[in-house]
Structure formats: C-alpha cells, structure tokens
Amino acid sequence: MTDITASTFIRQDMAGERPAPVKTTGFVGFVRTRLLNSPTNILLTLVSALLIWFTVVPALQFLLVDAVWVGKDREACLAQNAGHPVGACWPYIAAKFGQFMYGFYPDADRWRVNLTYGLSVALLVPLLIQRVPGKALNAGLFLFALPVVAFFLLYGGGLSGFGVSWTASVLSLVAESIDTAGNALVRAGDTVPVVGVLLWALGKLVVLLGLLASWIVWPLVGLRDLLQASRQPVWTDLVLTGLVVSALVFVMGGGVRAMRSVVATAATFVGIAIVIAVMGLDRGGLPIVDTRLWGGLLVTLVVSVIGIVASMPIGIALALGRRSTIPLIRIFSIAFIELVRGVPLITVLFFATYMLPLFLPGNMRIDGLVRALIGVALFSGAYMAEVIRGGLQAIPRGQAEAASALGLSWWKTTSFIVLPQALRHVIPGIVNSFISLFKDTSLVSIVALFDLLGSLKASFADPVWATPTTAFTGFAFTGLIYFAFCFGMSRYSLLVERRLNAHRRN
After folding, report:
1. What pLDDT is stored for residue 481 in this prediction?
2. Does residue 252 belong to any structural domain of this protein?
3. I need a labelling partner for 117 at 20 to 30 A (CA). Which of 167, 210, 231, 339 fits?
C-alpha cells in the first residue's frame, strides 16, 4: 500500500486573487440587473430614456422653469414681455381658482362647501385607516348622516322644503294615481261583458291598495303640516322624543345590558337636534343655492362620490339577481345590465336629463343634478354588477354547500361567506370601475352641468386671460387634480388588497 502523508492534502503555494464580486445591490446593482442585463433590456432602457427626455423634461420646463408665477392679467404671460419662452401661466390659475373649485357658487356662501369638504375628510380618513376603532359608527355617519347634512349645507333650505313635505307630496300623488287607476278599471269592468268581472275585481283590488297607501301617507302628511305650522323649535321635540325612545329601549332591553343601545339612541337624537338647531332647519335653514350655480370640483366630487357609493349596492343586487333561480328576477337583471352596458354614458345622461321629465306627472319636477346622479348611479351599477358577478363565479360551489349543511340560510351564506370572498377577489376591478367613473364625470358638462372640465372651458372665454399658454396651463392643472385622485385610489386599493390577501403569501 502506498504511503500517504499529510503533505499530499496540504497546499504548498498561495491561491491566486479572485476577481471583485459584481455589485448586485444599490443603484449600481439595480442598473446592472434590471436595466442593462440583456441586449433587449438595454434597447428598452435607451428608448425609455429618450422618451423621458423628449416628454417629461419639456413638460417640467413648461410647468416650472419657464412658467410665469406673478401677474394680474394676460400681459404677464405674453412672450414679448418676458424676453424668453413663456411656460405655464399660473396667475391665470390663481385668478380662476375659485371658479375651478366652486363653479358659480356665491362667494359669501362658499364656507358651506369648505365645511362639507372638511366633514367629508374628517369622516373618510378614519374609515380608511385600519387601526382606528369605531368603524361601524364611522361608516354610519359617513353613509347616512353626512349626505343629509351635506344636502342642507350645499343646497340650503329647511325641513319644510326637504324630505317630509317632498316625500309626502310624492306619496300622495302615487296614492291618488293608484286610486284613479283602480276606479278606471272598475268602470271598464262595468262596460266589458266578457272579462268585466275580472276587471272589476282587479279595479277593486287596486282601489284597496290606494286606500292602504293613503293610510300610510296620512301620518307623513300630518307631520308635514305640523312642521310647517308649528311655532316651537323642532329640535326641542327631537330631544324629548330621543329621551322617550331611550327610556323605552332601556325598559325593553333588559336594564343595564341595554345601556349601549340607550346611549346610541340618545346620541342619535341629540345629534340630529344639534344639527337642526345650529343650521336653523326649523326656521328656514340656510339660503338656497340652486344646483345650476354649482360647478367645478364640487360637481365632480358630488357626482363621482354618489355614483361610487350607489354603484356598490346596485351592482351587488344586480349580480345576485343575475344568478338568481327565480326567472323573473334573473330576466330583469340580465335585461337591465345588457341594456345599460349596450349604450354609452352620454346616452344615459341625455335620457335622464331630457326624456325622464316627459314620463313624470305634470306637477312633479326633479332637479337636473339629481337626474344626472340617477343616470350615473344606474350606469355604473350595471358595470359593477358584472365585476362582482366575476367574483361570485370564482367562489367554489362547496362553500355554499358547506354553509347549507350547517343550516345557514341563503341570506347568511351570501352575506357572511360568499360575498366577502367574492369582493376580495375583484378589488382591482372594483377600483378600476371607480377610477373610470371619476373620470367619466366630465361628460356631465354636455348636459349643462359645469364640472371641473366644464368650468375650465368656461374660463377660456375670459379675454383678460386669453394667451397662447392659457389652455395648456388649465388642462395641466386639471390633469394633475384627476391624477392625484385616481392615483390615490389605485395606491389605496393595492394596500387593501395586500392586507386582505396576507394569508395567501408564501
């Protein structure tokens, strides 16, 4: 056997120096591994750099470097007075800023719009932050209390001009129409020999429905007359009513265990009373500002927010209706979705603005902004229905079957098991619909509503600021506003998506 010594496995000379490692971290590593790691990526990097050089750099130079920041009229933004290429005319934006934000809303009442903005932000921000407690109360205030307060702030008026009298008048008109139709059927039954009995019976049934409707309307009409004739402040009656209801809740709820309900009930009535007392709703309220004077970002936010909030329940109802096993509900949902999705939004707006009044009774009028809101909500709800239906189809059938085996009803299965998972799957599609709706609000300018872009175009008619760069500056300013809102919604949706899908990460 060969003698193996230790020197056989021991290196006798020094190893050569190794080359320095390729840097894979930091800016240099990013360039090497992401931008210049292949011929294709090198070509794409060069093309992107040229595109940025010829687009972004001139845009920044126009908006910031060569821009005019101070001036009183168009003379400050003309090239012959500057001595160099003139960029954006920011004094024009400063002069028209109020028009862009409020439209033609009266200057003395613009604090009402600012207060509405402040209340909206104060309620929305805690709702979007996950760790802030009291989400149920916050959502209730944002979805139910804020719209009513915002209406009285933005439009004005008192209780006699809002829900009670308007609702009572509409329901009274409906009850009278039902009674008239029933009597007409009864008279037709008396003259038609063959199906006269059926028409007579149907007419009597319709008359009975009209009578029941009038019984339902009667208390509301009485409340309307009481509010209009009462000399006492309504908020005092609300406080007394809140105390009585709180006492009833305390007695019926079983003592101490009902304390939370008592506090919530009392706080609700007291809050309503405070709003009525502060805003003077029982004394005529704030001065009425017609919606034809609204404009700018105010109209854009009103239309987009109401459309976004209303599209979710409409979309959920239509998506569930399209999957329903009841033929009438399924056919109606399919017909509505396909009909609305088959026409452009501008057609829906034209129909809601100009044709809908033709189908209303002669003494009934609906505000133009309200008609546009109805059209936008129905249109966006039809698109939202298809997005949500895609999420419902992604849920395995075994989920509903397991819930049924546990004895859960269809409503509980849909509300607590199927629908939450479906909405989590389609968060990108939902937010994409929201962003599209926010941008599509610019179409309301075609039906005589001055949104942000409509106010911008109206400002071009002012000869005081007629310069070659006025239009570019205005569109750049509004584009930045649209980008800020859309980008914010996109980033927040990614945050929500990551938080809800954290259990799927490996």
Report:
1. 92
2. yes
3. 167
The CA distance from 425 to 155, in Å, is 39
Q: Which is it for the CA torsion 362, 367, 369, 374, positive or negative?
A: negative
Q: What is the model's pLDDT at position 76? A: 77
The verdict on 255 and 302 lying in the same domain is no
Cβ neighbours for 277, distance < 8 A, ≥ 6 positions apart: 233, 235
Rounded Cα distance between 61 and 29, Å, is 31
Q: Print the domain residue range for 395.
A: 95-105+293-504
**Is residue 154 in some structural domain?**
no
pTM of the model: 0.74
Q: Encoding tokens for residue 202?
A: 């149907």
Task: Give the number of residues written for the chain.
Answer: 506
State the angle between helix axes of 368-393 and 427-440 in degrees (0 to 180), rounded to the nearest 10.
Answer: 160
Q: Do 266 and 320 belong together in one domain?
A: no
Kindly state the tokens that stand for 154. Answer: 């933005």
Question: Looking at this protein, which amino acid is placed at residue 183?
Answer: N
Looking at the domain assignment, is residue 299 inside a domain? yes
Give the model's pLDDT for residue 21.
Answer: 67
How far apart CA 342 and CA 345 sit, in angstroms, is 10
Tell me the per-residue pLDDT of 412-460, one tens digit each, with 9 for 90 and over. Answer: 888 888 888 888 888 888 889 899 989 888 888 887 788 888 888 888 8
Could you identify the residue written with the tokens 């976004």?
308
DSSP string across 340-380: HHTS-HHHHHHIIIIIGGGGS-TT----HHHHHHHHHHHHH
- Domain contains 157: no
Residue 432 backbone dihedrals phi, psi, to 5 degrees: -60, -40
